[in-house]
Every structure is written in structure tokens, then in C-alpha cells.
Specification:
This protein is of the alpha+beta class. The longest helix has 19 residues, at 101-119. Strand 3 and strand 4 (46-53) form a beta hairpin. The protein folds into 2 domains: 4-178, Formiminotransferase, N-terminal subdomain (Formiminotransferase-cyclodeaminase, Chain B, domain 1, 2-Layer Sandwich); 183-346, Alpha-Beta Plaits, CATH 3.30.70. The strands form 2 sheets. Strands 1, 2, 3, 4, 5, 6 and 7 form a 7-stranded mixed sheet that branches. The protein is 36% helix and 21% strand. It starts with a strand and ends with a helix. It has helices spanning 17-28, 55-72, 101-119, 138-141, 145-152, 194-204, 260-273, 289-302, 311-322, 332-335, 337-346, and strands spanning 4-7, 10-11, 33-41, 46-53, 88-97, 123-127, 174-178, 183-189, 233-240, 245-252, 278-284.
């Protein structure tokens, strides 16, 4: 079986396409790597790049991209809606075929070590690659974001896993990990209130309402924690000026536990309880085929569609019911992971 891993780095640049193109060019320059998708978010000032291929080639491409991002992106001037800690904010590796999670962890940690040693960027390892229980959570590694990094990095409990325990003003820090496939999913609301969107996010996300209670970012208030409704879901709310609407922005970390369509339905229910309505949604990056087929079956049964089992019909139902065409055209051939990977491999 061909060994394939996927890499989905998030870069803190979504406005300057020249910078984005230079970073992507570094990735494309490596033999054995296939560029699958680029998702540029202007309001978040963030770009999500998806590529896959031979593990060694993917790791080399990832390192070159981190290096170029550190050269071109100045975090001291960065502004954006999305939480972030560095020029390359987060860099996950995902096993796709012919490779175990344990092997992927090894690749992630070696990549993290190289970034720290050669680029002098502080690196925290998260998800399956984490060395401590707390650092498994990306949100924990990012506490305080870039603005809080200078104060916390000199504390012993915030010593990076790799690289110098020293503030890098231009590049910030990078979080590297190994994880399973997740879906980045935003639900659109008929309001401009980021506050209301965030209240919905707090209600539905798994960790509920829990916040840091110290400027050192070492303590959290667990006494008043109220768990959210959806397992394996991270969420925040924000206003997207580009679209003129607020969104509930989610990471679905295990769609077998909370599938895409149930996350959508929960936001709808919560919004309706606040006198609002959902006006569509968007998928950032790529989505597994199964997620949309499951959504198609769910809405087909709920809305009494004909029991057509063809994939094309189920995808049509899912795209319509989720409102995936509301902001811009949703092309299943360019957004479904399996279709994109197959097309790229056939193009060889």
C-alpha cells in the first residue's frame, strides 16, 4: 500500500496573495507532494493549505513552508479574527494510507525538532504528538495567543517542546502535531453580532464555558465550567466583515461522534432560541466524502426526499440543506478530499 500522509498548515496571512503564493511555491517545489487545496480567509487573515504525499516529502515541504512563512510574515503587525500564535500557527500531519498514527507522531516530532533547531522558532507539540496531557489541546497551546507569548514563554511550564524558550517577535511560535482528519466548518447567522455567535459557540462546544483566570495563562476557572452539548467539537464565534455576517466557527475533531449535519442542526436550534436563523454554512479546506453522504441521507429522511441512494443525489441534498452554496459556489469535485486526491494522483 502506498504510504500517504496529509499536511494542513494554517498560515497567518490571508490578504497578501504574493506572500501566500511564495509559501505555496515552496510546498509545490518538493517532488512526491501533491497540492490539494488552498483556502484563503481575508477576514481571519489566515490561509489553510492542504497537501499530501510520501511522508518524507511532505515533511520536507512543510519545513520549507514554515521557513518561508517565518521570513515573509511579521506577527508583530498581524491582525485577524482567528486565534493564532505564529506565522505558521498550526501544522498537523494526518495519516491517510499505509502509515500508522505512531509513525505519524514520529514524523511530527522530528519536524518540530527541525523547525526549532534550524529556524529558532519555539514549537509546541499537540494532539497525538503531545508530550503532556495539557498540550494535547490546541487551544491550550495557544492560550494568550501571539500577544501573550512574550510573557508566558519564559515561564518554566511554558517551555517549548523544541526550539528556544525565547520570544520570536516576527515568527511567534508554531504548534505541530499528529491527528486524525477534522472538518473546519462555519455556520452563518443572520446577525452581525460576534458576541451572540460566541455565546452559541460556548453553548455547543465540548469544553463549554471555561476561561483563563490569570494573565500568566497557567490557570483556568474549572469551578464554573458548564459543558457544551457537542462532543469532539471546538467552536468560537466571530464577525466576518468580508461577508457582513457573524459565524459560529467549528472544528469537528471526530465526525463519527458529532457528524457535520448534527453540528449544523444544533447551531440552528440554538440560534432559533435566540430569535435568529441560520443562513447557510461553509467548509474550510476539504471534507471527507462520508460526511456529506451522511448529511445527504439525514436530510433526505428528514425532508421526505425520494430514497435515491446515488452519491450525486445525496451530495446535492447535503449541499442544498446545509446552504453550502450561499456564500460562494461549492464544487464537490474541489472540496471532497477523496475526489481531489484521486484527481491529483490521476494527473501524475
Amino acid at each position: 500500500m502506498t504510504r500517504i500522509i496529509e499536511c494542513v498548515p494554517n498560515f497567518s496571512e490571508g490578504c497578501n496573495e504574493l506572500i501566500i503564493n511564495e509559501i505555496v511555491a515552496e510546498i509545490s517545489s518538493v517532488n512526491g507532494v501533491k497540492l490539494l487545496h488552498i483556502d484563503i480567509g481575508k477576514a481571519a487573515n489566515r490561509t489553510v493549505v492542504t497537501f499530501a504525499g510520501n511522508p518524507d516529502a511532505v515533511v520536507e515541504a512543510a519545513f520549507l513552508a514554515v521557513s518561508k512563512a517565518a521570513e515573509l510574515i511579521d506577527m508583530s503587525t498581524h491582525k485577524g479574527e482567528h486565534p493564532r500564535i505564529g506565522a505558521t500557527d498550526v501544522l498537523p500531519l494526518i495519516p491517510i494510507s499505509g502509515i500508522s498514527m505512531d509513525e505519524t507522531i514520529d514524523y511530527a516530532r522530528k519536524l518540530a525538532k527541525r523547525i526549532g533547531n534550524e529556524l529558532f522558532i519555539p514549537v509546541y507539540c499537540y494532539a497525538y504528538a503531545a508530550f503532556t496531557e495539557e498540550r494535547k489541546e490546541l487551544a491550550y497551546c495557544r492560550l494568550g495567543e501571539y500577544e501573550g507569548l512574550k510573557a508566558k514563554i519564559e515561564q518554566s511550564q511554558w517551555k517549548p517542546d523544541f526550539g528556544p524558550a525565547k520570544f520570536n517577535a516576527q515568527a511567534g511560535a508554531t504548534v505541530v502535531g499528529a491527528r486524525n482528519f477534522l472538518v473546519a466548518y462555519n455556520v452563518n447567522l443572520n446577525t452581525t453580532s460576534a458576541q451572540i455567535a460566541n455565546q452559541i459557540a460556548l453553548d455547543i462546544r465540548e469544553k463549554g464555558r471555561i476561561k483563563p483566570i490569570s494573565q500568566s495563562y497557567t490557570e483556568v476557572d474549572t469551578s464554573s465550567k458548564i459543558g457544551g452539548k457537542l462532543k469532539s467539537v471546538r467552536a468560537i464565534g466571530w464577525f466576518i466583515e468580508e461577508y457582513g455576517i457573524a459565524q459560529v466557527s467549528m472544528n469537528l475533531t471526530n465526525t463519527n461522534i458529532t457528524p457535520l449535519h448534527l453540528a449544523f442542526e444544533e447551531v440552528c436550534t440554538n440560534a432559533e432560541g435566540r430569535g435568529l436563523s441560520v443562513i447557510g454554512s461553509e467548509i474550510v479546506g476539504l471534507v471527507p466524502l462520508k460526511c456529506l453522504l451522511d448529511a445527504g441521507r439525514y436530510f433526505r429522511d428528514k425532508q421526505f426526499f425520494t430514497r435515491d441512494e446515488t452519491d450525486d443525489k445525496l451530495l446535492e441534498i447535503a449541499v442544498s440543506a446545509l446552504g453550502l452554496n450561499d456564500l460562494y459556489e461549492f464544487n464537490v469535485r474541489e472540496k471532497i478530499f477523496e475526489y481531489v486526491l484521486e484527481n491529483k494522483l490521476l494527473a501524475e
